[in-house]
Recover the amino acids of this structure.
């Protein structure tokens, strides 16, 4: 088969009276990297089983390289498609190497022994999946994760043009999950192997796959690039889950965070008389700990792109919002001053200070009164976080001389706040 592009046209698959897939149509080009996502029962496994011919369509047709999939002789199909199923049960006392060698059967004639090339392919498959040291071990004595890697190695030994993966890392430790998908990506990019995988973990899928098919209600709900399919609206409609979709700062791929239904902005509550100055990812743990302690601070000033702003907005906290890439203009400074004056406690987390946010620290000195308490969380000395030629350090020292208190650890600060917030205390 010169071309192994896959075309699925009007496919319907039934289990008796129960529909597993209902009139789906799509095509996959040779060398694609495609992931099937969707809630349980959406039809992901049924689609893979139909492509591998374990299931027969009730209606519709699948074309592989221009040929009707159902009419391709099984030996030829086995040289083209390899499958890594969910179920990795091994019932016979074969060695690991014997099972991996079974992947060569479609390439051998009847009663033909493996040659040097076959043995090299087998050894490479075991090495790539990290099981070479298990070659002589009985497969029935392996752990679930080890068995899964044996099945993966068998599929690689098949040297397929299309690799079908049905939850292939379900039993693997996280390090082997990453190693496996790195391997799959190398096979796709360097060898042109077409990958079609069903995966539950949306973040792993976003990190390693280029094309998404979202199944829901036995149909294709959305198909396209990750940015087109992995939207909060699509995930809500298909899974019934609320999510935040962002970019992972480490690799730039989409990051999906499932959020609960208890902390939405619609459930705003009265502030606890605490204001937290600034934000950023350094402040988010303190914000989270305050909420866990039943203390709801106001926050800011922050831009909408700031992680602290996202946290505050989701939890319905009062926040001073700056335009993107802007300094703290006078109007926002006045909002900040007003917010400080309303607070009983002003918290300054262990955040860096530069020319862009020094004015937030200056606002504390300008607005605070003798009836307010300034509390520093100084997990890192301010001198190591001062990027404005020592101005932040001088200002913090001045505030401490005027009565501000410093806490080295977050639990100590929280304990102090809880004591101060007890009824009867001023």
């Amino acid at each position: 088969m010169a071309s192994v592009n896959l075309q699925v046209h009007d496919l319907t698959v039934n289990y008796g009276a129960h529909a597993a897939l209902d009139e789906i149509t799509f095509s996959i080009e040779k060398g694609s990297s495609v992931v099937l996502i969707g809630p349980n029962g959406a039809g992901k496994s049924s689609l893979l089983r139909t492509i591998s011919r374990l299931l027969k369509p009730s209606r519709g047709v699948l074309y592989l390289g221009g040929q009707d999939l159902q009419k391709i002789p099984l030996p030829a199909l086995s040289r083209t498609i390899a499958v890594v199923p969910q179920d990795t049960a091994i019932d016979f006392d074969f060695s690991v190497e014997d099972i991996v060698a079974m992947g060569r059967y479609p390439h051998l004639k009847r009663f033909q022994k493996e040659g040097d090339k076959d043995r090299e392919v087998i050894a490479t498959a075991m090495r790539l999946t990290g099981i070479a040291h298990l070659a002589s071990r009985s497969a029935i004595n392996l752990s679930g994760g080890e068995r899964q890697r044996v099945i993966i190695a068998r599929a690689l030994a098949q040297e397929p043009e299309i690799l079908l993966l049905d939850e292939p890392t379900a039993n693997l430790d996280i390090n082997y999950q990453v190693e496996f998908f790195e391997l799959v990506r190398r096979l796709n990019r360097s060898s042109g192997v077409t990958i079609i995988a069903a995966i539950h973990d949306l973040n792993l899928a976003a990190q390693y796959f280029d094309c998404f098919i979202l199944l829901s209600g036995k149909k294709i709900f959305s198909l396209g690039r990750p940015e087109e399919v992995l939207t909060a609206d699509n995930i809500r409609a298909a899974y019934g889950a609320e999510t935040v979709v962002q970019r992972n700062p480490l690799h730039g791929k989409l990051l999906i965070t499932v959020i609960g239904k208890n902390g939405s902005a619609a459930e705003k509550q009265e502030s606890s008389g605490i204001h937290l100055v600034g934000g950023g990812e350094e402040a988010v743990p303190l914000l989270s700990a305050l909420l866990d302690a039943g203390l709801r601070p106001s926050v800011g000033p922050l831009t909408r792109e700031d992680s602290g702003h996202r946290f505050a907005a989701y939890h319905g906290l009062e926040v001073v919002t700056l335009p993107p890439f802007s300094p703290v203009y006078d109007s926002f400074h006045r909002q900040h001053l007003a917010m400080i004056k309303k607070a009983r406690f002003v918290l300054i987390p262990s955040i860096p200070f530069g020319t862009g946010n020094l004015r937030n620290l200056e606002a504390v000195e300008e607005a605070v009164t003798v009836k307010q308490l300034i509390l520093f969380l100084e997990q890192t000395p301010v001198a190591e976080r001062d990027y404005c030629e020592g101005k932040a350090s001088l200002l913090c020292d001045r505030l401490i001389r005027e009565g501000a208190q410093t806490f080295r650890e977050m639990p100590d600060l929280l304990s102090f706040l809880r004591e101060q917030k007890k009824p009867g205390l001023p």
